[in-house]
Amino acid sequence: MAEVALLGFKPQLVVPGMKAEAAVRFYKAAFGAEEIGRVAHPKRKAEQECPLILSAELKIGSSLILVSDCFDAAGEESAAAAGGGGIAFRLEAEDVDAAVKKAVAAGAEVMSEVSEEEGSLLGKVKDPFGVVWAIAAVGKKSPEPEA
Amino acid sequence: MAEVALLGFKPQLVVPGMKAEAAVRFYKAAFGAEEIGRVAHPKRKAEQECPLILSAELKIGSSLILVSDCFDAAGEESAAAAGGGGIAFRLEAEDVDAAVKKAVAAGAEVMSEVSEEEGSLLGKVKDPFGVVWAIAAVGKKSPEPEA
Fold it and tell me: The VOC domain covers which part of the protein (chains A, B) (predicted)?
């Protein structure tokens, strides 16, 4: 199979029970995490008391981790519900379709077909070891929060 | 609490059923992973057919991941059994004791006390969100394989 350019991945912690905000606070207190970015869910209004965190990016030492509230969009299975204990890997690819096809050819199972989501092309596969990989296009940013 | 220097973490996938070798092969096929290091379990002989992988380090794009067979040493709970869906984070700290104390003060629970393990100081905590953090000393390498 042809080479597929993958740029790297970040672990993404999907927190159930609307506790992503609490998780962010915990990682700051426990590991001195620095919050370097946050994207609220675009359907939430800024004045709501408890905004859903689509993705907060934290830096712990030199490493990056994404923390997200668990939510179901359009009936899509959430990463937490689908296994992996709430931890998924967000893998950046130059060609999302090719990357998903290569993973499937190697034995991964499609969890959600490649589609435009969160402002970027995204496909999800589960590997034979139960790990969820969200394969996303490189350089496409999620929408800015409506702050 | 005083600052605790953390250098960063690597995700560690703990694979049950002696399938770490299969997982390494899968990640090479699926994501073009490059194996940049492997440490076999020091109690295994190299001539054994199916060596336990203490830790294989893979590079996917610019990111690193550790893949390990799941095994119980000295009655220690395995990461897979303890939650986190087989994914833990190996966090490098300059002062393991201080890092564990700070995490516990913030709400993490000790899974195994700090002790000399795999050739380096290591303590394990589980955070309030179910994620296992193996906090290890910086720069101490695991023992070389008996190849």
Answer: 8-138
3-state secondary structure of A30: helix
Residue B61 near chain A (CB below 8 Å): yes
Name the residue facing B31 among A85, A103, A129 (closest C-beta): A103
- For the CA atoms of chain B, what is the radius of gyration? 15
**Alpha-carbon distance A8 to B10, whole Å?**
13
Looking up tokens 């897979």 gives B80
Asked if A140 reaches chain B (Cβ–Cβ under 8 Å), the answer is no
pTM of structure: 0.80
CA-nearest residue of chain B to A108?
B30
DSSP B99: H
A94 part of contact set with chain B, CB < 8 Å = no
The residues pairing with A57 across neighbouring beta strands, listed in sequence order, are A37, A66
**Cα dihedral B110→B20→A127→B65 (10° resolution):** 60
First to last CA, chain B: 44
Its ipTM equals 0.80
Q: Give the CA radius of gyration of chain A.
A: 15
Sheet holding B6-15, edge to edge: B34-40, B53-60, B63-69, B6-15, B87-93, B132-137, B120-126, B109-117
Q: What DSSP string runs through B21-85?
A: HHHHHHHHHHH--EEEEEEE-TTS-TTSSS--EEEEEEEETTEEEEEEE---STTPPPHHHHSGG
Q: What size, in residues, is chain B?
A: 147
A35-67 pLDDT tens trace: 999 988 776 665 565 568 889 999 999 999 999
